[in-house]
Amino acid sequence: MSYDNIKICVAGGDLRMLITARELSAKGFGVTLYGFDGCSCDSGAAVRESDIEKAVSGASVVVLPVPYSTDGCRLNCPFCKTEIRADGILNVLHPGQLLFAGVCTPSFYSRAEEKNITLIDYMKDEELTVKNAVPTAEGALEVAMRELSVTVRDSNALIVGFGRIGKLTAAAFAALGAGVTVCARRGEALAWAEAYGYETVSTDSICAAVKGKNLIINTVPELIIDRNVLCSVEGDALIIDLASMPGGVDDGFAASKSIKVIHALSLPGKTAPVTAGKNIADAVIRILERRGVL
Asked: Does residue 36 sit within a domain?
């Protein structure tokens, strides 16, 4: 199928978004790339633009990064030499253009709606989120191997949450011989974890569960590991927080207790940008097909 009559602008993001642009271009779309003036990596046939209005001009689809912003105001654009406001992107778009972005906030939806811009959060695509969980779990393993003073095999890990990322993270650590306990709120999740052969504990008993664990991995995007929990964490334990900002750990209190917390954000973009970028490109195409655009 030929897509050369459809122009897509990929604006901002890390290396996975550059790969996204490259993949879309390779599949036949006309692609412009904005926000990578500080990156010399190969962008394939995607055309780099230094002006956002020129980049989005004629584009029926604009793709922003994941997350689209880390503070709700500025576009997540680490390779851009100038600051880009998320609202500035909305200001140069017009009704009829589709805006894709990752991890959209309610306020961003509202601002897009005010300007009659259709905003689509591609991270709500189930196939993408499952595929994205793989490099996240592998990235958590890499962080643990780098930061722990013992082998993963000698670790006793508590995995908080048993969703997509929790399942794959538990499997990755168990495969290397770590002791794995799954902590979850829902009985269904605990039943599945038990069926997979893991020790299980309810979130209601997390204070007792963290005792004796040298590794705690949080996947839940709400404050689960609070002061009460941290008071039960042993001082030499490592906490890896995989949850989106603001995360699930009271970082300030952890620091006061000299407990090491690593907020490992955007691991797919750091550990496997090519895989992650291809997955995002496939998700964009899949969503456009579902909407009848292709």
From this structure: yes
List per-residue pLDDT tens for the chain, 294 residues long. 567 689 999 999 999 999 999 999 999 999 999 999 888 888 888 889 989 999 999 999 999 999 999 888 999 999 988 888 998 899 999 998 999 999 999 999 999 999 999 999 999 999 999 999 999 999 999 999 999 999 999 999 999 999 999 999 999 999 999 999 999 999 999 999 999 999 999 999 999 999 999 999 999 999 999 999 999 998 899 999 999 888 899 999 999 999 999 999 888 888 899 999 999 999 999 999 999 888
Q: Determine contact, residues 179/159, Cβ cutoff 8 Å.
A: no
Q: Which two tokens stand for residue 116?
A: 């009659």
- Tokens 């196939």 sit at which residue? 127
Degrees (nearest 5) of the Cα angle 95, 100, 101? 125
24's CB contacts (< 8 A; 6+ apart) are 8, 10, 31, 46, 281, 284, 285
Statement to judge: residues 178 and 246 lie in one domain: yes
List the Cα angle 57/279/288 in 5-degree steps. Answer: 50
Which range of residues forms the domain containing residue 170? 128-263
pTM comes to 0.88
Task: Please report, for the domain that includes residue 171, its CATH number.
Answer: 3.40.50.720
Which of 10, 6, 30, 4 is closest to 100 using CA atoms?
10
Residues 241 and 278 in one domain: no
Give the chain's domain count. 2
Residue 262 · residue 255 · CB < 8 Å: no
Q: For residues 160 and 248, is the Cβ–Cβ distance under 8 A?
A: yes
